[in-house]
């Protein structure tokens, strides 16, 4: 049954959202435009992620798409919108404004990393340019056999600037990243799996969604405190030394670990049932009651 908490979420122009069994399913909803990432998309994605985190009982987020392609990437209308692009006759002020715009775009995709819920992406067809930036910020990636990926920005005469060049080398070998970035060529689902970018390749979108939802269901059945701890530690370890990461782990464990969830696990195993864990406390703003 769909949770009543989904009713608290606003309507989004770019996404359709369903919530069931503590899994939030976010689907891109502009197939007629190849789910290109227009201005509304960039504005709504971080809000959507944080709304799910703070206003629902979801423990996992699955991001998928509609139509033939996952996403054609950045909608060029973002750059032709006078209300978005900085306007000044002063080159230095234009440059500062453009830097601010790029930082805002980067922050949109970083929201996938910053929320405490695991984010799984299910990709069909083209995953192009900014869409590749997005899936690199997710926790895990799955795709159909007809999926393909490309660092499209190179072919367009610019350097990819919202995350692929920073995150992809943490996911696959650097030499392969450089080849893909320098050439801008398409690489297939099979290559993506071989490189280690995607966890699994499915025959079609239907079987992919079934498979990814099964994985999400397994995650949602685990202690949400343990799962969010895993995400926090893995992301921290990616960006820090082993020594620093071990120290952070010890501090986290000293502050967060309590035996309650473990006892529920042991009791459930003894009774051959599924343990029922408490949800994490909702995230509230500083002045919310």
From TrEMBL:
It is found in: Peroxisome. One of its GO terms (cellular component) is cytoplasm. Coiled coil: none annotated. Pfam families: ECH_1 (PF00378). It comes from Oleispira antarctica RB-8. Pathway: Lipid metabolism; fatty acid beta-oxidation. GO terms for molecular function: enoyl-CoA hydratase activity; isomerase activity. One of its GO terms (biological process) is fatty acid beta-oxidation. This is Enoyl-CoA hydratase. It is an enzyme of class 4 (lyase).
């Amino acid at each position: 049954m769909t949770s009543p908490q989904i009713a608290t979420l606003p309507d989004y122009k770019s996404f359709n959202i369903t919530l069931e069994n503590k899994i939030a399913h976010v689907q891109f909803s502009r197939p007629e435009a190849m789910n290109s990432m227009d201005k509304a998309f960039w504005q709504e994605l971080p809000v959507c992620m944080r709304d799910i985190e703070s206003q629902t009982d979801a423990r996992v987020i699955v991001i998928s798409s509609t139509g033939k392609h996952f996403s054609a990437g950045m909608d060029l209308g973002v750059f032709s919108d006078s209300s978005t692009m900085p306007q000044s006759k002063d080159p230095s002020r234009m440059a500062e404004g453009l830097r601010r715009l790029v930082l805002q775009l980067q922050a949109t995709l970083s929201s996938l990393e910053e929320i405490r819920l695991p984010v799984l992406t299910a990709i069909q067809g083209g995953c192009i340019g900014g869409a590749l930036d997005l899936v690199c910020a997710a926790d895990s990636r799955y795709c159909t056999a007809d999926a393909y990926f490309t660092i499209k920005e190179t072919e367009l005469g610019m350097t990819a600037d919202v995350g692929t060049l920073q995150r992809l080398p943490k996911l696959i070998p650097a030499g392969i990243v450089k080849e893909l970035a320098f050439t801008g060529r398409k690489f297939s689902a099979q290559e993506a799996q071989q490189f280690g970018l995607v966890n699994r390749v499915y025959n079609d979108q239907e079987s992919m969604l079934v498979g990814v939802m099964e994985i999400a269901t397994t995650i949602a059945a685990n202690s949400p405190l343990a799962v969010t701890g895993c995400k926090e530690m893995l992301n921290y370890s990616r960006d820090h030394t082993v020594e620093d990461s071990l120290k952070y782990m010890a501090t986290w464990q000293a502050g967060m670990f309590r035996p309650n969830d473990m006892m529920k696990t042991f009791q459930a195993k003894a009774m051959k049932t599924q343990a029922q864990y408490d949800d994490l406390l909702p995230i509230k703003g500083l002045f919310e009651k």
